[in-house]
Amino acid sequence: MSDITTTDLVAMFDAIGAMIEANKGHLCELDGVIGDADHGVTMSIGFTAVGLALADLDTATADPTAVFNTAAKSFLNAVGASSGPLYATAFMRAGAAVKGKPVLDRDAMVDAVAALAKGIQDRGKATRGEKTMVDAWLPGAEAAEAARAEGQPLAACLDAAAKAATEGAESTKAMLASKGRASRLGERSLGHMDPGAASAALMLKVMADHFAR
Ligand code: ADP
Ligand code: MG
Ligand code: MG
């Protein structure tokens, strides 16, 4: 596929926002079981703010880093929940990973996904197996990097990431939460999917679908 432009990236964020709106109730339901039932709402507030901020961006002069930085800033300002600073750091890191690039090729986009995942891990200090969004983002990023190392095109890299993240989110059902709100539940968190991991897998799926060309 051709390189990802600033306009493509803005459209990707809009597609993520639309997916969040469609899954708002589902994400709140998941959070209702092991958290405070607001994950769909917090993500909706965040991506609505991102969409409005990106609509104001001059795509003729803004580079991909500016898109990620704008997303980071607006998400942070809009979201008070724990996902606010996590995704703000993630998008900042993604922007830093592609700094100076006018468009994103496969390598840059996979680097952005990897930086995003690492940003969440660094900001939240969760490791794999603690029943958080890290359990979807990290395997997702690793799968994208592995597909790239095999010489696969971007669409296949993102597809691999989405599949691994979906499996990762599924695997959180068997995990005991030790980070975030759900950690207060102890064993009662067992058997339920982490809402942040669920939304992370959906985000990667949107990215894969968006660039499947
Ligand atoms: P809040 O818990 O403040 O209501 P949300 O409901 O928006 O925030 O997000 C909850 C999600 O945030 C959890 O399902 C989990 O995936 C993620 N999360 C919470 N704490 C951490 C952390 N320290 N590191 C990574 N992810 C975390
Ligand atoms: Mg919540
Ligand atoms: Mg909350």
UniProtKB/TrEMBL annotation:
<dbReference type="InterPro" id="IPR004007">
    <property type="entry name" value="DhaL_dom"/>
</dbReference>
<protein>
    <submittedName>
        <fullName>Dihydroxyacetone kinase subunit L</fullName>
    </submittedName>
</protein>
<dbReference type="Pfam" id="PF02734">
    <property type="entry name" value="Dak2"/>
</dbReference>
<dbReference type="InterPro" id="IPR036117">
    <property type="entry name" value="DhaL_dom_sf"/>
</dbReference>
<feature type="domain" description="DhaL">
    <location>
        <begin position="7"/>
        <end position="209"/>
    </location>
</feature>
<dbReference type="GO" id="GO:0019563">
    <property type="term" value="P:glycerol catabolic process"/>
</dbReference>
<dbReference type="GO" id="GO:0005829">
    <property type="term" value="C:cytosol"/>
</dbReference>
<dbReference type="InterPro" id="IPR050861">
    <property type="entry name" value="Dihydroxyacetone_Kinase"/>
</dbReference>
<keyword id="KW-0418">Kinase</keyword>
<dbReference type="InterPro" id="IPR012737">
    <property type="entry name" value="DhaK_L_YcgS"/>
</dbReference>
<keyword id="KW-0808">Transferase</keyword>
<dbReference type="GO" id="GO:0004371">
    <property type="term" value="F:glycerone kinase activity"/>
</dbReference>
